[in-house]
Amino acid sequence: MATTYRIAVIGDWESVMGFRALGLDTYPVTSAEEAKERVLELAKGGQCAVIYLTEQLAKNMGDVIAHFKDELRPAIILIPGREGPLGIGRDNIQRAIERAVGSNIL
Amino acid sequence: MANITVNPTRMELTRLKGKLRTAQRGHKLLKDKRDELMKQFLDTVREVRSLRAEVEKELMTVHQSFTVASALMSSEALEQALLFPKQSVVLTQTSKNIMSVNVPVYQFETKTKSDSDIFPYGFAATSGELDTAVDALGRVFQKMLKLAEIEKSAQLMAEEIEKTRRRVNALEYVMIPDTQAAIRYITMKLDENDRATTTRLMKVKEMILQEAIEKKRSADLEAEARYAAGQNG
């Protein structure tokens, strides 16, 4: 299991450009549809272990995120875009708790 | 106690008793698994929450720095500066087993070893804000990777807990009571059969006895009659 993987960042250009300097694969997109295609493409290739996705895009692509929730790869992690956090990432944790426990206990 | 269509036989009874024992043992084990998973999960979730809050906060400052940088530089110049990354990151993924859930563990390696050597541009043509932003982003990235790891773990564990919980409930509220009911049913039926056999035997015995008595009586009567006839004749 010593395969190496890439890390992708998907979001609007202003939010992702910084990650390019770190050597991550950045995919600037403009719409949720484009982002969806990109995610599916990356997942299909199997080269990507982690995909960071801005919340601004994530709010319109719940189906794709839900699809990869139970997969080991890729891990889709939401990050706030430059407009600020929308609380979707935090909601997702909340939802995971509800799913596991049956009710919200925290 | 839904549909019990079992054969009330001893063989079925033995089979069901075995099944019940297995179900009870499985139930206990799964319950333990669920409890332990839950404990681990809650620890992980707490960690995720605090780390996420940190990452979000730090990312916002990074975004702010980038905004300032893009205000000071033209977007072409900015794009040009960041176009060809010097740094490159490869990620190795191994997995760790927590209570039969495979969770990812990420290790990343950077091409350039030094943290200060990541700027893919010359300093002359760019704003100092950009350096700050890239530098801060480099630091927050470590946390982001850790966040990816534990958040994914939490998601996978949530799935497993849900599955285990369903199994525990199915065993506790369906499988075990049903089997117990079936066992009770068979025991009752067998006991009932036993009693039926006993009564039947008693009845048969009584009938045979009655018959024998009747026979004896009629034989006696006959003998008596013959004796009386002999006396008269």
Question: How would you describe this structure to a colleague?
Answer:
The complex is a heterodimer of chains A (106) and B (233). Chain A has 106 residues and is α/β, with parallel strands linked by helices. Chain A has one domain (6-101): ATPase, V1 complex, subunit F (Rossmann fold, 3-Layer(aba) Sandwich), CATH 3.40.50.10580. Chain A has helices at residues 13-21, 32-45, 55-58, 62-67, 88-101; strands at residues 4-11, 25-28, 48-54, 75-79. A four-stranded parallel sheet of chain A has the order 2-1-3-4, with helices on both faces. Chain A is globular. Chain A starts with a strand and ends in a 5-residue tail after the last helix. The mean pLDDT of chain A is 82. Chain B has 233 residues and is mostly helical. Chain B has a domain at 27-162: Helix Hairpins (Orthogonal Bundle), CATH 1.10.287.3240. Chain B contains three helices and two strands. Chain B has helices at residues 10-72, 75-83, 128-232, and strands at residues 89-98, 101-110. A two-stranded antiparallel ribbon of chain B has the order 1-2. In chain B, a hairpin with a 2-residue loop joins strand 1 (89-98) and strand 2 (101-110). In chain B, helix 1 (10-72) runs antiparallel to helix 3 (128-232). The longest helix of chain B has 105 residues, at 128-232. Chain B is rod-shaped, with a radius of gyration of 43 Å. At the A-B interface, strand 1, helix 1, strand 3, strand 4 and helix 5 of A face helix 1, helix 2, strand 1, strand 2 and helix 3 of B. Strand 1 of chain A pairs antiparallel with strand 1 (89-98) of chain B.
